[in-house]
Structure formats: C-alpha cells, structure tokens
Amino acid sequence: MIKRLCEWDDSLLIGIEELDYEHKVLIEDINRLHAELTRNTDRSVIAKCLGDVHFRMLAHFALEEHVMKEHKYAFFDEHKREHDEFLEDYMECMMKFLNGAEVSSKNPIEE
C-alpha cells in the first residue's frame, strides 16, 4: 500500500465548515496524485490528476479569498499573493509535465 503524502486531522480545522471541507477534499486529491505518481501510472491518468488538483485549488482559493474579504481578514493581500505564487508554480510544473517532462513522487519535475 502506498503511504499517503498528507493526512487530515482535526488540528487542521479552521472552524469554517465550507473551507474545512475544501481542505479535506484537496488533501484527498493531492494524495491521489501522489499515489498515481508513485505507481508510475500512465501519463494520461497523471495529467487528469494534475488537472483535478489544479481545478480544486482554483475553486478553493476563490472561496477562501471570498471568505477572507467577507471577514475583513487583515492579511488578505499577503495571503492572496501566496495563493497566486503557489498557483503559478503549480501551473509551471503542470505545463512542464504536459510538454513531456518526466515526473515521479520523489522528483516532481525533471526537464
């Protein structure tokens, strides 16, 4: 059995039900991607997992940013910048993979 990359536990709860749910699902998507990479699954399956994680991150970050604005979160700009940088890095890795780079769970992207 493949070891999970991330484990959810109640210490990760932030107390906002919608965001806690999104965090749990995102962790599951990341673990599924990790499992497929570990198994050296067919590239089309990995590409789908990469796309699923990307879609989940986009939706989650949008929801999280909406909630932060709603609650007038003092560090919104900094947190939004972190989201943007993370998405940019993720997209760069995803595009490298889609353009033929080798990928594994130990070495995410090799050019």
What is the 3D form?
A: globular
Largest sheet: none
Number of domains: 1
Mean of all residue-level pLDDT scores:
89
The proportion of residues in beta strands is: under 5%
Low-confidence runs (pLDDT<50, min 5 residues)? none
Radius of gyration (Å): 15 Å
Helix content: 55-70%
CATH topology: Four Helix Bundle (Hemerythrin (Met), subunit A)
Q: Specify the oligomeric state.
A: single chain
From the helix content, strand content and strand pairing, which structural class follows?
A: mainly alpha
Distance between the termini: 29 Å
CATH-assigned homologous superfamily? Hemerythrin-like
Note down, in words, how this protein is organized.
The chain is mainly α. It has one domain: Four Helix Bundle (Hemerythrin (Met), subunit A) (Up-down Bundle). The longest helix has 28 residues. The two termini are 29 Å apart. The model has no long low-confidence stretch (mean pLDDT 89).
Keywords, separated by commas or semicolons:
111 residues; mainly alpha; Four Helix Bundle (Hemerythrin (Met), subunit A); 66% helix
